[in-house]
Each structure stands twice: as C-alpha cells, then as structure tokens.
C-alpha cells in the first residue's frame, strides 16, 4: 500500500486531499509545515510527498533542500496557490515531478499521483 505524506499549513487542504484519496488504498500522513514533514520522513519511508510551497515555520523550498541534503529521493508533487518564479525554481529540483494549484481538484490530484507512482515504479524496475 503506497504511503503518501501531505505537507500543508492548511488543515482544510490536507483534509480535502484525504477525502479525494479516500478508498484508493493509500496510507496518508500529514504535516502542517516543512519541519514537521522532515520529522515524519525520519519515522517513515514515503512513496510520494505532496508539499505546499508557502508555509510558516519551514516552507516547501527549504524542506526540499533539507530533503535533498538527506539524500532522500522520494518523488514530490508541489502545491501552490499561484504559478510564479518560486514555483519555477522549485520545479528544477530533480525529485519534483509535478505541481497542482490549490485547492487541488480530485481528478487532477489522482492523475498526478498515479503518474508519479508509475514513474517511480518504472525507475525502480530498471
């Protein structure tokens, strides 16, 4: 069963993701900022992370840098309220596979997750 970490300061967005993915066979963990996300990564191995760019305490950009310094290769889908230069910079990270605008639509979220998990599975098998 794939394990997904959702990192977003909005409890509403985290709940929306959980509702969109309910019944699809995922284990979903949540963190409200990048620092909590890094703590969760220390406890569990994730198949995918969905990370908000703009958060208090530690934003998504800093979390990605810290994740890279730990040599963690877990694929990431970014979430953002607006497409801007910050998103473009974050997309340059090799672990970032896609992005979604907030609030995520159920169909787009499910499609992005399926594509990223398929890519990761194919990369592992080669």
Describe this structure in words.
The chain has 126 residues and is of the alpha/beta class. The chain has one domain (3-125): Rossmann fold (3-Layer(aba) Sandwich), CATH 3.40.50. It has five helices and five strands. It has helices at 11-21, 34-43, 60-69, 85-91, 106-125, and strands at 3-7, 27-31, 48-52, 76-80, 96-101. Helix 2 (34-43) packs parallel to helix 3 (60-69). It is globular and about 30 Å long. The mean pLDDT is 92.
What would you say the CATH architecture is? 3-Layer(aba) Sandwich
Q: Report the biggest beta sheet as strand number plus sense, adding barrel if it closes.
A: 5 strands, parallel
**Overall residue-averaged pLDDT value:** 92
Structural class: alpha/beta
| Number of discrete domains | 1
Task: Kindly summarize this structure in a few lines.
The chain is an alpha/beta fold.
Set out the fold topology.
Layout (H helix, E strand, L loop, with lengths): L2 E5 L3 H11 L5 E5 L2 H10 L4 E5 L7 H10 L6 E5 L4 H7 L4 E6 L4 H20 L1
Parallel strand pairs: 1-2, 1-3, 3-4, 4-5
């Amino acid at each position: 069963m794939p394990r997904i970490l959702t990192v977003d300061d909005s409890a509403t967005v985290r709940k929306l993701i959980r509702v969109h993915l309910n019944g699809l066979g995922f284990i979903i963990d949540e963190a409200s900022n990048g620092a909590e996300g890094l703590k969760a990564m220390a406890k569990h191995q994730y198949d995918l992370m969905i990370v908000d760019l703009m958060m208090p305490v530690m934003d998504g950009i800093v979390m990605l840098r810290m994740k890279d310094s730990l040599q963690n290769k877990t694929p990431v889908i970014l979430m953002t309220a607006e497409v801007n230069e910050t998103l473009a910079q974050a997309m340059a990270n090799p672990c970032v596979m896609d992005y979604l605008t907030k609030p995520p639509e159920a169909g787009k979220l499910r499609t992005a997750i399926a594509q990223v998990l398929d890519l990761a599975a194919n990369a592992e098998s080669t």
